[in-house]
Amino acid sequence: MRLQLFIASIALLAVIGTASAGQNWAVLVAGSNGWYNYRHQSDVCHAYQILHKNGIPDSNIIVMMYDDLAKNKQNPTPGIIINHPNGQDVYKGVPHDYTGNTVTPKNFINVLLGKKDAMKGVGSGKVLESGPDDNVFIYFTDHGATGLVAFPNGVLYAKDLNSTIAQMHSENKYKEMVIYIEACESGSMLEGLLPDNINIYATTASNAEESSYACYYDSKRQTYLGDLYSVNWMEDSDAEDISKESLFKQFQVTKQKTTESHVMQYGDLTLGAKHTVSEFQGATRNGKQQSVSPVVDRMNTLLKRETTATVDVRISILSKRLADLPANSEERLSIKRELAYTVRQRSIISSTIDSIAKKSFEVNRSGYSDLVTSQRMKLTQHDCYKEATQRIHAKCFDIQNEFVLNKLWIVANLCEVGLHSFTINNAVDAVCDVLGRQQFEY
């Protein structure tokens, strides 16, 4: 009898131990659409392949991406997406949880908070069902600006992201969480906002003031295949035994290889040293992975030397296409016109936002006008900034456009020097009511 009780106790402890080990969950988001933004969705597809290969079940991986690449008329290899020149297909098997118009900031927040009722009838309806014993990995890639990242429909503000994270923590939605963000000025999504005591470790492609960079231009597809920060962390995960590599080591490798921007880390930095990459990206197959050969690694490094700031990607793609076309061909003339239009679009956007800044000071002549257009300030007036940028979106331009995103730090500065949102909004109306909302195609 005592022996039976002892065996039963051991079995119970084993069950409890298994339960307390928890599960891995992941949310992967590409916040853009369009062929020239190819790299964001290919990044997410590659990230999925890493997690899937490492044993995280599809039921625990939620993918949000517009899904307009595989069958795109510009795709020379229909049904296939690659993240590296001559690379393998990374699209096969990727879950189609949320695609097209369901890729929104609101749906992303509902997924993170596990709101199943809110997501009924939307995409796959999958949400994070993680609990206090589970590790969560979030990867986001797209365009960004001061205090926001873009989605195909709408933008997600830093304040809203961090309040969502705080709610996840208060509701015990995770044991520990890792966040990787690829976007321009992505450090501004977390800097001064993410606490260091809620079991989260995060890294970003850039600091709060600089661009992130595209890489791997592919002449066959006439677009960039990846983003520098993203392919660096993913190629590290592909090459290393991530069951032995710490999160901090992956940060160091990624930082060293991302030469154009400053890769940053936030949150509880001790987690980076304490935990392995595999605790968030899945246990490696058979306990280990094969490292890439030195030749392949050198080739990757050489190919990544040609990088392009996100804001310059469209112009770079058109310039490269133009250079490859014969003189006086019809297609060359068409691309030349498109390039001229794109350059003009960028100029109009820049001068319009400068005009909004100037107009904002017409009533209150405080001498800050030159300062706000020449020197970046740290964003603290989040509500004013949100209201002003939404007014620009309604009256002037689609703020998902990277040329607009690249200038929004000026709008943030207007709030930081003490102007009220209604003053800025009046300036927006005065400038953009004359122009009308510019429906630029991109």
What does this structure look like?
- This protease is used by the parasite for degradation of the host globin.
- This is Hemoglobinase.
- The protein is α/β, with parallel strands linked by helices.
- It folds into two domains: 23-308, Rossmann fold (3-Layer(aba) Sandwich), CATH 3.40.50.1460; 330-435, Orthogonal Bundle (Topoisomerase I, Chain A, domain 4), CATH 1.10.132.
- It is built from 16 helices and twelve strands.
- The chain has helices at residues 2-21, 38-53, 105-112, 158-170, 228-239, 247-257, 269-274, 278-281, 294-303, 313-323, 330-360, 369-372, 382-395, 402-405, 408-416, 421-435, and strands at 24-30, 61-64, 135-141, 144-145, 148-150, 155-157, 176-182, 200-204, 213-218, 223-227, 264-267, 308-309.
- A six-stranded mixed β-sheet has the order 2-1-3-7-8-11, with helices on both faces. Strands 4-5-6 form a three-stranded antiparallel β-sheet. A three-stranded antiparallel β-sheet has the order 10-9-12.
- Helix 2 runs parallel beside helix 5 and helix 13 (382-395) crosses helix 15.
- It is globular, with a radius of gyration of 23 Å.
- It starts with a helix and ends in a 7-residue tail after the last helix.
- The model is unreliable at 5-19 (pLDDT under 50).
